[in-house]
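Table S5 (text form). Sequence records supplied for joint modeling of the three-component complex.
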Amino acid sequence: MPELPEVETYRTYLNKTSLDQVVKKVSIRDDRVLEVDPKELKEAVEGKKFHSTQRHGKYVFVDLKGEFLILHFGMSGDLLYFEDLEEEPTHSRVLFSFEKGKYLSYISQRMFGKIYLTPSVEYFLKKKNLGPDALKMTYEDFLEALERRTAYAKTTLMNQDVIAGIGNIYSDEILFQSHIHPKTHINTLTDSQLREVFENIKKVLHYGIEKKGNLGEYSQKCLIPHRDQEDNCPRCGTQIQRLSVSSRHGFFCPNCQKA
DNA sequence: AGCGATGTTCGCCG
DNA sequence: TCGGCGAACATCGC
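The corresponding structure-token record, covering 259 residues in total, follows.
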């Protein structure tokens, strides 16, 4: 279930469970999730350790000293650390077996997730043409990223080339908190609106990380628990509306978020 | 039983 | 050439 807060939660989980242990074996259960040759992946990881991790947008980079293993989770990815092979989850696609006898599964139900290998993080970010990380960017980075952009605000926030890390659900929340209609063109926002969007990106994502991406635990004051046409705006009680933006749907309050 | 899903990519269009 | 849009991708649960 991964946008930036979920991916950051997975990264923390990997850090807590899997660092500094020798990977004895990499078992590829389904090579469709690989964007790297299976043999190359095994050679790169077997006998090595996960030394540290970093995240950019929705990608996790695992430092193998010399190269980086990259985990991306698509729409249905997850990680599970476990002790007994019988506990291996249903949609485990790649299994890392540690020397200690424990395991880490890379799970991908719908196969939209991908595993890569790269010599350098910078090289990979450039190749993917990713914008600045939503949490690490400064206000100047943000303004620079928006230059020459004219698409809808929601589309722009979700565009990983512009800013990396925001997806469908969090873009709705950010625009709700900023009182901006999802179909407002990004280049028509005032300076104070831009400032507000920037602040809300940080607030909403930090809050998401605090909740470990657990959408069920979000405050009722957020739009997220009300992303439903049958529901009402937590601020003004107006019925929430659904709309389609760049072939995916979003929710907004027609009263609080005027066009 | 069909639709839709928290993502990315690619081809088409202006 | 660049930016934007929307379909396509693979699978499963509601």
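Note: Chain A is about 30% helix and 20% strand.
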